[in-house]
Amino acid sequence: MVALTFICVAQAEEGLYSVSSRGMGITQFDFTITEIKREPKISTLKIPGFHDRSAGASRWMMCAYTDLAINRGFKFWAALYPEEPSDVVLLALFNSETEDLTKLLGAKFSKETAVVSPVATFVALCGMAVPEHSSDSPLVPISAASNIPTESVLSDGMKISASTPSGKILIEGKKGFTRVYSGDSWSKTSTLIPRSTRWYGSLGLYDPADSDSMHGRLLVDEGRQFFSSESEALRYMQSLSEYYGNLTYNNSGLVIAYKVIDIEGGEPTRSLTLWQFYINGKKPSTLQGAVDQNLKINGGDTPETATPFPAKIGYERALGNKEYGASN
Fold first, then answer.
1. 90, 116, 146: which is the final residue of a domain?
2. Any domain includes 307
3. Are 151 and 133 in contact (CB under 8 A)?
4. Where are the alpha helices (DSSP H) in the chain?
5. Residues 128, 227: one domain?
6. Most CB atoms within 10 A, among 112, 207, 285, 310?
7. Residue 150, exposed/middle/buried by CB under 10 A (0-12, 13-18, 19+)?
């Protein structure tokens, strides 16, 4: 993505936010974002032509969301995308990683309808000029974020093929954080975003799947999960299965959760989570209910041992009230 410099903010009437891509000298697309209502933790944005945006325009919009969050003094944002034909985006702004977004954005909030991001992530990606802040600034310094290791699963050239209840999939690791995902009659390439805080236990990578359509999105999480016992790992898997249904995993703790969400009028949206489990710092040798033949790994492997980096914790990882097993 080309770095964009949001040095200053154009203001509409009554001090509300407004920014134009053309006004910034961008010629590849033409969008204007106008804040039409401001509440303590919500900015209501009107973006004409929102559903016709390109991938490049989508990234520019996320830079604008970040710019607005900075100017309002917040360190996280969550954008709730509208259904057609509406062009109004609700942007939730918050400082606590444990913020209940359903209270801010309502019952429509979910992983499929919203994009959530730390400000620090897009500050770096968008080449932003950040104003000076006091010592209690909510912003995470870019220099601090860049020193945090990424607890990824795949390496360049590594391939994982899986037979899941929702269909066969192939995940290929490319250079850096680029991945290729494919299944029956579909394929997507994505450059994942490294996390700077540990969300749901992971300090790995993600793709919020912003797109020019609600159809054909692929939401991705990839990372390592650390547990003190097999029982704790199985209870986490039970919690994960409440959304994804049956999981695909082997005795070495490689876990894939894959869900296909049919959306009327177009290609389905897919949600994919790839974890490598570690129990007391080591990959397990057995994991209750595992079926090894459902997963095949070529061109590399995950480390046999690992320990979690002491990063700041975002959303806490949920555990189920029982262990996941073959009978689920």
1. 146
2. no
3. no
4. 55-72, 101-105, 119-125, 142-146, 230-244
5. no
6. 207
7. middle
CB 258 within 8 A of CB 271: yes
Report how many domains make up the chain.
2
**15: which residues sit within 8 A by CB, 6+ positions away?**
none
195: its two tokens: 């996390």
Task: Please give the single-letter amino acid code of residue 50.
Answer: F
Q: Are residues 169 and 283 in the same domain?
A: yes
Residues 183 and 288 occupy one common structural domain: yes
Written as one string, the DSSP assignment of 143-192 is HHHHTSPP--S--TT-EEEEEETTEEEEEEE-STTEEEEEETTEEEEEEP
Q: Considering the domain boundaries, does residue 267 fall inside one?
A: yes
Residues 177 and 272 in one domain: yes
Q: What are phi and psi of 110, to 5 degrees?
A: -165, 175
Q: In angstroms, how far is CA 104 from the centroid of its own chain?
A: 19
d(CA 118, CA 279): 28
pLDDT in tens, 148-193: 788 999 999 999 999 999 999 999 999 888 999 999 999 999 988 8
Eight-class DSSP state of 102: H
Q: Are residues 107 and 163 in the same domain?
A: no
Say if CB 276 and CB 253 are below 8 A apart. Answer: yes
Indicate if 167 and 293 belong to the same structural domain. Answer: yes
Q: Is 220 a member of any domain?
A: yes
**How far apart are the two ends of the chain, measured CA to CA in Å?**
42
Range of the domain at 290: 159-298
pTM of the model: 0.61
* pLDDT tens by residue, 90-138: 999 998 878 888 888 887 777 666 788 888 777 756 656 444 443 333 3
Pairwise CA distance, residues 51 & 214, whole Å: 8
